Structure formats: structure tokens, C-alpha cells
Amino acid sequence: MDVRPGETVAIVGPTGAGKTTIVNLLMRFYDIDDGSIRLDGIDTRDLPRDTVRRAFGMVLQDSWLFTGTIRDNIAYGKEGASMAEIVAAAIAAHVDPFVRTLPDGYDTRLEEDASNISAGQRQLITIARAFLADPSILILDEATSNVDTRTEVLIQQAMARLRHGRTSFVIAHRLSTIRNADEIVVMDNGRIVEQGGHETLLARRGFYRDLYESQFAESVGAEAVA
């Protein structure tokens, strides 16, 4: 897989195909046994892990927030961030409007597991953190299964804005959301089995088309039941 700067690459495949493994390898949570992963032409094993990880921003399905204020949670993306920078990131991620409705605003203290705000609000805060960190490469888990429709739209808008001008890897759950990706990487049993654009992959009538049509059938069936 060869990814050019600024491209959005969607990684798709059934459960257990290896999508999360690719993320772990990119971040050097563990090293590969063979071959190489290169960042701007440099083998990532020749770079300090901290250097590799600072190049990446991550927004995952399970948002990670800690006990502390909303301000602190956003500021975690950049050491020494000013309040103006925190607010700018919050505005970009659609966090600012709901924070300003809270009695303590940005000083609102999140409880353990951030259970005093909604799942969608937690996800938006992690996106704001990524805006503040301003990484060159993004890893996005675009699942929004636990949020209402309006919040899902806000999350998708914020993620689209975050991806702009950056190299992005999107772990795709619903194939309908990644039709405009520059490249779609299709995985099965730990291997890349197809690569290409949405229309090209559909025309091949291969693994991707089978995945896409099975999801479409499930969606239509769910709507019929509803």
C-alpha cells in the first residue's frame, strides 16, 4: 500500500480482517516481522516511537477522556495550548456550542468515563483534541453507532474538516460513508485483497462488491422491519 500526502484511504473488511492490526502497526504499538512501514521514506523502526506517534492523530470509536475539565481534555492534544487555541479547536469540532450551555463552560469537570455528557459530545471533544494537535496523518474510526442522527451529522462534518489537507486512514464500518475516499483498501484474513476507488471496485464484482451489497441488503431489511 502506497499512500500519497493528503490522500484519504479507507480500510474496509469483515470483522477480524486485520483493520485494527494495520492501525497498531502504523503507530508502532508493535513492530512488523517482515517488510517495512515508511514515513516520508524513512523506516518507522529507525525513528523514535514518540516521533512516529506525534505524526498521527487518532479519533477512535471508543473515545478516551480522563477525569478533569473539558478544557484539560481538549488541551491534552498540545502541550502549553492557550485558551484561544482550545476554543478555536472546539469551534472547529462543533464542541463550543454545547460547552457554552453548561453552567461551568470549559471548566465543566468530566466524571469518570465522562458519563455526565453524551456519547456524541465525548466523540466531538476527541475530535477537538485532534484539531489542536494538528497532526500530519490521521487515523479515524468513523463509527457513530451510539449517537443520534443530528450528532452523527456534526461528527461527520467535523471529521471531514479535520481530514482536509491531511493524510487520513479511515476504518470504515458502513461502506456508504467512504464512497468518496481516494483509495479503498479491502482486507480479508490479514491480507489486502483489493484496492481502488468505489466505482472501480464495484465494477470488478469481487470481494468489495459482495461486502457492499450485503450491507445494502441489511440496511434495506432493517428499514423494512422498522
How would you characterize this protein structure?
The protein folds into 2 domains: 1-55 and 139-226, Rossmann fold; 63-134, P-loop containing nucleotide triphosphate hydrolases (Rossmann fold). Helix content is 40%, strand content 17%. It contains 9 helices and 10 strands. The protein has helices at residues 19-26, 49-54, 70-75, 83-92, 96-99, 119-133, 149-163, 198-204, 207-225; strands at 8-12, 38-39, 42-43, 56-59, 68-69, 109-110, 137-141, 167-171, 183-188, 191-196. Strands 4-7-8-1-9-10 form a 6-stranded mixed beta sheet, with helices on both faces. Strand 9 and strand 10 (191-196) form a beta hairpin. Helix 4 (83-92) crosses helix 6 (119-133) and helix 6 (119-133) packs parallel to helix 7. The longest helix has 19 residues, at 207-225. The protein starts with 7 loop residues before the first strand and ends with a helix.
